[in-house]
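Known limitations

Files may contain more than one protein. Parsers should not assume a single record per file. Below, a two-record file is shown to illustrate correct handling: read the sequence, read the C-alpha cell line, then continue until end of file.
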Amino acid sequence: MQKSQKNQESAEALAVQALAFVASDPELLPRFLAITGIEAQQIRRAAQEPGFLAGVLHFILAHEPTLLRFSQEAGIAPGEVGIAARALPLGNDDHERSS
C-alpha cells in the first residue's frame, strides 16, 4: 500500500471518529447541521460525497475548544486533525475559524 493511500485511509478513520464525536454531542450536532445545511437523516448519504469527511474535520478545526475536546477524546495532538484534513479529498486549508 502506498504511503499516500495509507495516510488517506488513516485520515478517513479519524474523520469518521470526528463525525461520531459531533453526532454524539447535543450542542455540536445542531450547529454542524445548520452550518452544512444537511438534515440528520442525510448524514450517512452525505458522508459518501467527496469533501464531506474533510468538512467534518474543518468543522472541528474551526472552533478551538471543540478541537481541544476532540483531540483529547481521540488521544491525538490537535495538529493531527489538520494533517488529516489535508490528506482527504477537498481538504485544503480554505476554511474559516470561529471563536
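...continuing to the second record:
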Amino acid sequence: MFNKKFEHFEVGETWSSRGRTITESDLVMFSAFSGDWHPLHTDKEYAENNTPFKQRIAHGMLVLSAATGLQIMEPEIIVAFYGIDHLRFIQPTFINDTIHVELEVTELADKENGTGVVTAIQKIIKQTGEPVTTGVLKVLINKEKR
C-alpha cells in the first residue's frame, strides 16, 4: 500500500496483504523480546484452565507487529509511522491462525512541508474471515519533489 507518493493516494482506495501464520515460536520470541511472559501467552495449562479462550493467544502487540511486516513500506516513500487511533482487539489470534491486513484510505491531509498524512481503516483478519483488530492507521508519506 505504501509504495507511492502522497499525491497518488485516493480516498476509498483499498488494499489487502498476503497472509502470515502466527506460530508458537512467534509467541516465545516475542515474549523474550518484549519481556511479556504473561501466562495467557506462554503457559498452556494456565490458558486452558483459567481463561475464556481455553488456549494460548498471541500478544496483541505481536499481532500488530506482524501486520506491519505484511504491509508494503518503501523507505523513500514513508517518512514515519504517525499513529493508530481507536485501536481495538476484538477477537483472539491463536497459534496457527493466519492473518492478513486490509486497508481502506479514509482521509488525506497535506502537511504542506513536502509530506502528507494518509489515514486508513486497518483491519487485521484471520483465516475465518473474522477481524482480530481494527483501528485507524496514520502514516506520514513523502510528496513528489518539485
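Parsers that stop after the first record will miss the second one. For reference, the second record is described as follows. The radius of gyration is 17 Å.
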